[in-house]
């Protein structure tokens, strides 16, 4: 399993008039967490695109337990629980505040797309080589 | 059933370097659709808050079929399929592009919160009065 | 002179915990106004990029007089006061709320960039042809 | 003089289809830099609001020299060059990329607002006490 922890501080512009971090902002927080998880595989998402693979999101779900507030430091825990065996990869999420309270949980599924052909493809070998050492 | 259609044009700042409308931007589009659906009930979401009710999102899921692009005019179809019978209300979504292709489908669940007590409450009577005429 | 009016409604996700439309959101509102102004020239900004010209912003300033609030309908007035005579074009802005109160004024300067050469270029002829009929 | 350095990594959702960090996103980066500068004064912006003072932006300008790209680590340098002598405070900015190239410079003016009275007020004594030790 791959597990990455990322700290993100809630920006003023990310709050809404309820005083909460806007429910839509977690898509960005999860994206940041995903990037950190991928760095553990030995490459950045930037390099993934440079190698001709795009990874658009095809499914995203999030369940909110508690709000985050302005200036809160949030810990985004990003998990890859399984080696991708098809054209898809799944990231699981948990967000915590500084008091270690669970704020939300979520799941994001991305698909590997060959940029040239604009078609889904199986996870590339170099991607799998990065991920396999983490799974025993 | 309640059904609202809202037209939204993709802004440049909402695209990402893939050239897609960023996956996180639909939370805002859905919110705009929700507001339009609620206007059909005879009040704005602004008035809901003014009457002491907050409606934070507690669950959000979206499945992406096709991307939207810069300057595309998107139709957000927002549906309330059931009268809320508890502290929650569910909105269903479908997004289409100008060629009437389905871009994504989603579901957002909100909870009624009494602002003063900061506690979940059943849907207020005035809310139900607005919604009931649409369900026969 | 070119003058375009665009109506934009403030989204919930665009407010901050002060209850104001976040000061950073006007960059998007101005961008939307700019696109509408350019439609008056006979082409969309999307077509400009398709013809090999990028128009990044090189200067942006805004002075805020009054805040906008959630669900307010804002009128963005976008002006092109001069035919571009170099590699730059200037857009002037005024934003009003529904009570016709001036919310802010601003100015955005963009530069014409040849996408292939990645260099500034003079405003293309087809761009000038679109703009000239509006100036007598 | 007060000088704060803040590192911010460009998120995917902050890029646009030109591949640049969207011109509108710097308002948030500058806000983050401002918050860090204020921490040097001995309090957070959160505490400022808790003490009954709001600090909305009344003027914002930015000049872009070079774009930032996805995953770039940007250094936001935030400067307070003068002790506020009226109801306003000015922050100056410089943004650099990892190669230490100047990306943009800017200036943001905020006004001290008494939250209860909803009126501009002079910078509070406790604010000035935090700032004065940095100016000798």
Describe the structure.
Four copies of one chain form a homotetramer. Chain A is of the alpha+beta class. The first copy, chain A, has three helices and eight strands; from the N terminus they run βααβββββββα. Chain A has helices spanning 26-39, 45-50, 125-131; strands at 2-9, 53-54, 57-64, 73-80, 88-96, 102-111, 113-114, 119-120. In chain A, the strands form two sheets. Chain A has a five-stranded antiparallel β-sheet with strand order 1-4-5-6-3, with helices on one face. In chain A, strands 2-7-8 form a three-stranded antiparallel β-sheet. Chain A is elongated, with a radius of gyration of 16 Å. The termini of chain A are close together. Chain A binds chain C through residues 12-13, 15-19, 22-25, 70, and chain C through 12-13, 15-19, 22, 24-25, 70. Strand 3 (57-64) of chain A pairs antiparallel with strand 3 of chain B, so a sheet runs across the interface.
